[in-house]
Amino acid sequence: MLFLVVDDDALSRELLTLLLDLEGYAVEAVASGEEAISRMASSSDSPDVILADIQMPGIAGDALARALRPSMPPGTLLFAMSGSRPEADATRCFDGFLLKPFKITELQSMISEGKALAGGRKDPVTETSVAESAIPSAAAARAPGKRAHGKPDAAQSDGILDEEIYSKLSDLMPVEQLGQMYAMCIEDSRQRITRMKTLAAAGDDAAFRSEAHAVKGGCGMIGAKEIYGLAEAAENDGIACGKPTKTAAKPGKTGAGTSGVTAALDRLSLACDRLERILVARTRA
């Protein structure tokens, strides 16, 4: 089964490609709706499933779905995905919607349902019962050359790392690759936090929320719970994040200015540091 992943965020593309590859699927990835349209028009090898993020610059959402449909074979399924729940009209022309971070089992179930509704043959691979997790269970057979990790210290990572996701990822890849994946996500988050500080100072609320959305999407896929939660709050509140509520603010004060958002972003940076320390300790164990 061939997947085409369409996402403007490089980290999200890489993580989703990796997770699908670990499941045994063939995966191609493009960075925009325009690239997806070009790929579909120029290639004779049509994907079985297209996963398209609906919050991208350029052509996206239902406009992208309408543009892709003419070049899609009848059996190809087109799913929308996003880190935030969209308006209903934004996904009307898709075959389904997945809220990031989603479980691969959710995707597999959606594929089976889509094939059934279309009257197509259900693919045995998509009907395979995998653990209720983002990836196959710890009971799944390990590929040659991959080794298990020690039992995580749940108390140490409580509220910081989703141990179920971490354990299952560690069952699927060598410790070096696992470490590289988390390090890539943490570094990407730090770079975006730096940009968010600049955007907050410039008063660019839309771009600030977009960066927070990207942090949330990448960290959610690997179970970085604390970073995900703080990024979600920053996306929801925009450059007003960290400001006191009306009841907490002093009389006559309208808000905390840039100090509030700076404090919120500092907490996000500290969350990156905490996750990094936990991961470093585990690789040394």
Instruction: Look at the structure and name the CATH superfamily of the largest domain.
Output: HPT domain
Q: How many distinct beta strands?
A: 5
- Helical fraction: 40-55%
CATH fold naming of the largest domain: Four Helix Bundle (Hemerythrin (Met), subunit A)
Structure report:
- The structure is a single chain.
- By secondary structure, the chain is α/β, with parallel strands linked by helices.
- The chain has two domains: 2-127, Response regulator (Rossmann fold, 3-Layer(aba) Sandwich), CATH 3.40.50.2300; 154-284, HPT domain (Four Helix Bundle (Hemerythrin (Met), subunit A), Up-down Bundle).
- Helix content is 53%, strand content 9%.
- The protein contains eleven helices and five strands.
- It has helices spanning 10-22, 33-42, 61-68, 104-118, 124-127, 154-157, 163-172, 175-202, 205-221, 225-237, 257-284, and strands at 2-6, 26-30, 49-53, 77-82, 96-99.
- Strands 2-1-3-4-5 form a five-stranded parallel β-sheet.
- Helix 1 (10-22) links the parallel strand 1 and strand 2 (26-30).
- Helix 1 packs parallel to helix 9 (205-221).
- Residues 120-152 and 245-256 have low confidence and may be disordered.
List keywords for this structure.
285 residues, alpha/beta, five-stranded parallel sheet, 11 helices, 2 domains, Rossmann fold, Four Helix Bundle (Hemerythrin (Met), subunit A)
